[in-house]
Amino acid sequence: MWRDAMLVAGKDLRIEGRSRVALSQVAPFGIVALVLFAFALGPDRQTMARGAPGLFWVAVLFCTVLAIQRSVSVESSDGARDGLRLSGIDPAGLYLGKAVAVAAQLVVLEALLTVGVVLLYGARIEVPWMIAVSCVLGTIGLAATGTLYGALSSGLRVRETLLPFLLLPIAAPVLLAGTRIWQSAMAGGVPAQGMQWLRLLVVFDAVYLAIGVVLFGPIQETA
Amino acid sequence: MTRDLTATPVDGSAATHPPAGAATNTRVSAPPTPSTSARRTERTIGLLALVGTAATVWLGLWVTPPDKVQGDLVRLVYIHPGVAWVALYLAFGLAAVASLLYLWPRTRSLFWDRLAAAAVEVGVVFNICTLVSGSIWGKPTWGVWWAWDARLTSTAVLLVLFLGYLALRRVPAEPEVRARRSAFVALFAAVDIPIIHFSVNWWNTLHQGATVLNANLSPTIHGSMAWTLLLGFVALTLVFVWMLLVRYRIGALEDWLAANELDLALAERQAEGVAAGGAPVGSGPTDDFPTDRVGVA
What we know:
The complex is a heterodimer. By secondary structure, chain A is mostly helical. Chain A is 87% helix and 0% strand. In chain A, helix 1 (2-19) crosses helix 5 and helix 2 packs antiparallel against helix 3 (45-76). The mean pLDDT of chain A is 90. The radius of gyration of chain B is 24 Å and the shape is globular. Residues 1-24, 206-217 and 281-297 of chain B have low confidence and may be disordered. Chain B has a domain at 48-209 and 221-265: Four Helix Bundle (Hemerythrin (Met), subunit A), CATH 1.20.120. By secondary structure, chain B is mainly alpha-helical. In chain B, helix 3 (110-142) packs parallel to helix 5. The interface between A and B is medium-sized, with 29 and 26 residues.
């Protein structure tokens, strides 16, 4: 399973390395979103700094939708999906591989957006490790759910419009938890409340990863 | 092939088409008709629901006294918790269980799929009623139509989740594929509900404990108020069951129509030919019609 996952993840990342879609389209879109949020909130830096955690995670969610769309569309042409299924790769490995590739791209993107939030909104981060942990856990959750819904909607012609509608409400806990962890990381002090939210993220990740590993095979058959 | 199922009139008129093979060689199976006892059960439940609702309205609006603090506003309590109970627990719980039973190989049957679909659709209606009646109560009480209270927020998220389910169901697909896909989505949503519940509770615990239900289930409640409240629960549950049965029957007819609409159209055209005194049907041009209807079923 793990070997298969690494193979699939390597393939997706190699495709990204050659096509640079995430780097040249999704990441700039994230920055554009940050700039638009700034326009919407006005030039007051204090308001922006206060809204920074939420805005960061909303931007991440939008970029997740794009990354998942890309991850699905990579498999949709030239019968690539059938090829993968015929290749004897374990469905659980395929799921984990796709999720790892998406997560890797998202982590890079989040690093970029964090820099953007600090520079553009003047957000002050007091507890950096919490930011890092929340990003990793949040990313795992987003990649886990996104890959599930991506596979579920991969055969649909209305995928582009349906996927965000299905995925974003499901990912609402990640947004809530991520925002709260960021807030406590920016406030500094003893982040007791942040720990509670980190635990919630761990549960969210575990639940959806487990579902994906167990059900990805049957889900693929519906596409 | 795209078929907009909901745009097709499903009023049972399809049943008046000529029966299969009477004058033509098309193979149209008879539409699913519920048994007499099933129809009678449906009608009885509908009647009980109507009587129960009427009694709740009468008791709630005329018989029960106004509340000391809330005045006439308290009358919303006879429907709001009942509607919420149906929407949040009964309908979506049933949908989750039915979806699970569909996915379980041993109990896989389109019955569970249709039941889940009917439950979600009726549940969404009740969910909207919950939010609307809550809003009507909230405006004079809290001064706002909407508060980002934990309970309100999770109800709204639930609504969005199941609207997504309904949107997915509208995507044309083979019945089995659609059933599996929808069942997965319902299951993922159901798994998310406790997580959303906790996260939203931690997010905003402002109004915890001050819910309508708790306030009025206290022992100090007036006798007639308690009975009306209880009756409201029963009546709304009956309304839900009745709507569920009707929606299930419509769902079965929709599936039947989707599988037979081309055959029905063929039979109609052929009947027109016979009525116009054309060549006997079954020879000549009829043979040109595709008999292999794999794509239709």
